[in-house]
Design brief:
Layout (H helix, E strand, L loop, with lengths): L2 E5 L2 E4 L3 H26 L6 H24 L6 H14 L12 H28 L8 H30 L3
Antiparallel strand pairs: 1-2
Helix pairs in contact: 1-2, 1-3, 1-4, 2-5, 4-5
């Protein structure tokens, strides 16, 4: 790690680019986990509820896998990023959705689209780490391949749910 001066007579360790990258993805995973939990709760009793609950469990496991990778690589967790992502997801709930006191039919569609984007980002993370494994022997390529395959299945599930929800909200063509 390199050191960067922060003022006269002081030095502070500069985080590695990989550390910044992993912490940014951890923040995204935190926000995504909160979002999928909210989506699952909002769909309670619907045909989508079991699939969303299963996705929430998978996303939680993926976040745990990222934390384990960070531990293996000795990358410290930047808690302020995790807390900021958690708070941002909570603030995101306050958007105007055309319904003042009730859940809008658009809420489910927007949540599914946001979740799909998040899982696409997670898949990119696993691909990037898979590539980085060529120079970083502490990265387990078999595990990264498993995580990538799971992300691709999650993307397919979310896309199917998104298409069905869009048809329900806007009517099928």
């Amino acid at each position: 790690m390199t050191s960067a001066a922060t003022g006269p007579g002081t030095t502070q360790k500069e985080p590695s680019l990989l550390g910044i990258y992993l912490n940014d993805h951890l923040a995204g995973a935190t926000g995504g986990l909160e979002l999928v939990r909210r989506a699952a709760a909002g769909q309670q009793g619907s045909p989508s509820a079991p699939a969303l609950q299963h996705l929430a469990e998978e996303i939680e496991h993926d976040r745990d896998a990222l934390l384990e990778i960070m531990k293996t690589l000795e990358v410290p967790v930047r808690q302020y990023k995790v807390y900021a992502a958690w708070a941002a997801e909570k603030v995101g709930r306050l958007k105007l959705n055309g319904h003042l006191l009730a859940r809008s039919p658009l809420s489910s569609l927007v949540e599914l689209e946001a979740l799909r984007l998040g899982v696409e980002g997670k898949a990119s993370l696993w691909r990037t780490l898979r590539q980085a494994a060529a120079n970083e022997p502490r990265l387990n390529t078999t595990r990264l391949d498993e995580l990538l395959a799971a992300a691709e299945e999650q993307i397919a599930t979310l896309e199917q749910m998104r298409v069905q929800t869009a048809a329900q909200v806007f009517g099928s063509s």
